[in-house]
Amino acid sequence: MKQPLDPRICNISCDANAVDRDGTARTALVDRFVGLCDDGTLKVVMAGGVRDETSHPRTPAVVRDFMSDQIFNLRPSLNSGQQATRAKIARVLQGNAATGKHSADASHLSEAAETGCGYFITEDKRTLDKRYELEAVLPPTLTIVTLAEFLSILDDFEAGNA
What we know:
The chain is α/β, with parallel strands linked by helices and 162 residues long. It has one domain (11-158): 5'-nuclease (Rossmann fold). Helices cover 47% and strands 11% of the residues. The chain has helices at residues 26-38, 48-54, 61-68, 80-94, 103-114, 125-129, 131-134, 147-158; strands spanning 11-14, 43-46, 71-72, 117-121, 143-145. It has a five-stranded parallel beta sheet with strand order 3-2-1-4-5.
């Protein structure tokens, strides 16, 4: 496994599902993450597509409010290299799914890489299942993690164990 970056000194990106509260113990993790972002301990850079998704009226207000407070990518036109990277990521994510089904996820991951993020936090099963395959097409500095994994890494750095 690659050596993770110190989450306190790198940009972080996350999928909207990373901050969904579900009434389980996971809600406490979300509350902790949001608090660390609110107090400036963590720096979140949102992909433009994630920001667009969370502006949907059915997005829970607490998720929409958190996402709207973050720095976000304005999604300028893509150059040929960015288009090629998105296509490679989409091929990995697609597997046997319908063509284009995971293009939004590919865009989120690409934007995380383009904005120099050290982490992409998601609860998306397909993305998590394919994270080791994705390492071949993403920068070595970008690590795909769940929220629980991310907070564990942060705890290790704060304790001086990393």
